[in-house]
Fold these 2 entries.
Entry 1:
Amino acid sequence: MRKDIHPKYQYVIVTCANCGAKFKIGTTLASDFQTPVCSKCHPAYTGKELELRKVDRVAKFMAKLEKAKQLKAGQKNKKG
Ligand SMILES: [Zn+2]
């Protein structure tokens, strides 16, 4: 192997942002990092749907709806 042309290979800790699982991987990346989904919680491995995401989507929509209502109410108040 030629010297000084290869990135440093090392072990880092990966944390799953969805279920919190931690595992070690060998990589050329410099630091620990997060992954949005892992083999412990991915639907392809668990056979279950990600409830968390479904709830999040509905909650996001409800928040948007609420904000729109407030904006509308605010505009009415300004005019009247
Ligand atoms: Zn996970």
Note: The chain has two domains: 1-48, 49-80.
Entry 2:
Amino acid sequence: MPSIPLVSANSSPTDAIAALERDGCVVVTDVLAGSARQAIARELGPHLEKADIKTSLNEKYAADGGPADFYPGNTKRITALAAKSEAFRALVTHPLMLSACDAILSPNCASYQVHATSALVVGPGATVQMLHREEDSFQFFKVPRPNLVLASMWAITDFTAANGGTHLVPGSHRWPGDRVAREHEVAAAAMPAGSVLLWMGGTLHGAGANVSDNWRFGVFLSYSLGWLRQEENQYVDTPLELARTMPGQLRDLLGYKMHSALGFFDPGPRP
Ligand SMILES: O=C(O)CCC(=O)C(=O)O
């Protein structure tokens, strides 16, 4: 089985970025303190309690012509995390993420933005998710695509090969579109709580099956080039009234910022 490079938060971000560019994925340990994890879990808890444990979405998607194994059951998914959790917002502007985005995305844009957010809580009995690429929404670019998206998964609980730790195919960010991953090319992200897994938008990945008795709690956060359509509609999920209360850097990253001529708006009469 291939392995996912592991670096400590104490080393320079350039080590993590070099591994990310080389292998398409990297785990950085000790990034998120216990207090921050608890705050995220506390703030998202009431939303997760109300969330469906998706059991039948695969059937629905297959009936609609979608992939048959994108939404394995026994998984809770909630989105709009920037609106739901103040502790989550600190992840969006985390220096490690900004360094990685500067290296991976900035060469292709004037500024990058949040692409999508979600809490992905994989329960016992969940089956394996199909491998996919974060950049698959951008079908008009042929694989391997230019760097469009950078993704991350923050371990709120431990991730193991048994509890649904994310599957990744190291090196697949450079593969041609018709190359299919074989079983021995897939690695499971085993990482202690407080770690963050980063992967390139072109890296094949998917949630693992959970054959343990524990829930795997991860927080997903991705970024894209500022001239692309965001995967999650941040203007709906973080409406202007809420965005106005946020620090400028966070608000800009959520998309309340122009990219060259894109995204102008009528600010209304000046006071
Ligand atoms: O939960 C995971 O580990 C990965 C989930 C994922 O890639 C997705 O739902 O698109």
Note: The chain has a mean pLDDT of 94.
